[in-house]
Amino acid sequence: MNRRQMLMLSLPLVAAPSLALAQNKNLPAAPAAKPVAKRDPYAPTEVAIRSDFEVGSIVVVSKDFFLYHVVAPGRAVRYGVAVGKDELVWKGRATVGRKTEWPSWTPTPAMIKRKPEQYGKWADGMPGGPTNPLGARALYLYDAKGNDTSIRIHGTTEPNSIGRAVSNGCIRMRNEAVMDLFEQVPTGTPVYVY
């Protein structure tokens, strides 16, 4: 082995190309690195889940702002959600009692009492459509006795609210996410909200 070969072996592997580039000014500049897009933490993602939830059920973990639709034993599709403000978080077990496309919306008497200037004008209801706060789809949650809980899993006109505690107790999803869930979930589906 000659001296030049020994010198080449002693140089770090990354040094040789940079030395060559530094010596040849006629070479084009390396392209600038493209910024890496941040992954949306609230985009639908298949994840592992406890295996004791029945396939088909919905599990909401309010403090983490995620809804899980169990698709196989120990597997779920996770969606980002917005939930109720601290004093308005609803927790419990329910079933999907009804499903509606482009639902109408009527604020509850408690909502009207809390903020009459904001909700009073809709006391008789607001028709469904793109400006309706329930968004594109709604799943109505019923208790064990078959009573409407007034809690909905629904779309939103405020997709930037996902990942925050901002609602009056309902569980908000982006419209495209709730439309996907709506197609997968029949009435009677168990829902667990923690």
What does this structure look like?
This protein is of the alpha/beta class and 194 residues long. The protein has a domain at 83-188: L,D-transpeptidase catalytic domain-like, CATH 2.40.440. 19% of the residues lie in helices and 28% in strands. It has helices at 3-10, 15-23, 109-114, 116-119, 175-184, and strands at 45-48, 58-61, 66-72, 75-80, 83-84, 92-101, 137-142, 148-154, 165-167, 171-172, 190-193. The strands form 2 sheets. Strands 1-4-3-2-11-6-7-8-10 form a 9-stranded mixed beta sheet, with helices on one face. The protein has a two-stranded parallel sheet with strand order 5-9. A hairpin with a 2-residue loop joins strand 3 (66-72) and strand 4.
How would the blueprint of this fold be written?
Elements: H1 3-10, H2 15-23, E1 45-48, E2 58-61, E3 66-72, E4 75-80, E5 83-84, E6 92-101, H3 109-114, H4 116-119, E7 137-142, E8 148-154, E9 165-167, E10 171-172, H5 175-184, E11 190-193
Parallel strand pairs: 2-11, 5-9, 8-10
Antiparallel strand pairs: 1-4, 2-3, 3-4, 6-7, 6-11, 7-8
